[in-house]
Design a protein that fits this description.
Layout: H1 3-12, H2 15-25, H3 42-135, H4 139-148
Length: 149
């Protein structure tokens, strides 16, 4: 209700009704009602006080509901963040596990290859050593060669 329409209604209503009407619009105005002033009766004052009490009760109830809704929204937000964090950790763990599995498969192949390679190298070394030793002169030949030089 706009200010102009309030002024119109206040000017049209009888004095006690205007007081009652003002009190319903502005709860802070109710205490200024005085018995016998502007044709205000005790009944009007009681009605205004009761109406203001109901309005305060409604406002309090609305405020509580709003606070509960905000608290619930905050809890849901926290739970959502927690679920996202857990999902990210789960995905990271799966990724690490996958990398470890692939690394162990690769290292297993490398171990097999390196074992085979080691065996081949070992055989090659033995062959090379035997060939090297066969190419080397024995100690007596070596001693005679050293004396000639």
């Amino acid at each position: 209700m706009s200010f102009c329409s309030r002024v119109f209604w206040l000017s049209v209503l009888p004095k006690w009704e205007s007081a009652y009407f003002k009190s319903t619009i502005d709860p802070g105005w109710a205490p200024s009602l005085k018995l016998g002033h502007n044709n205000v009766t005790e009944k009007v004052i009681v009605e205004v006080v009761v109406r203001n009490d109901r309005a305060e009760h409604r406002e309090t109830k609305k405020r509580k509901i709003q606070e509960e809704a905000e608290a619930l929204a905050a809890r849901k937000e926290v739970e959502r963040h927690k679920a996202e964090r857990l999902e990210a950790e789960r995905l990271e763990a799966e990724k690490v596990q996958s990398e470890q599995n692939s690394a162990s498969e690769i290292s297993g192949k490398n171990c097999k290859k390196s074992l085979a390679e080691r065996q081949i190298c070992s055989i090659a070394r033995r062959v090379d050593c035997e060939k090297f030793l066969s190419d080397q002169p024995d100690d007596a030949t070596l001693a005679t060669q050293q004396t000639w030089t």
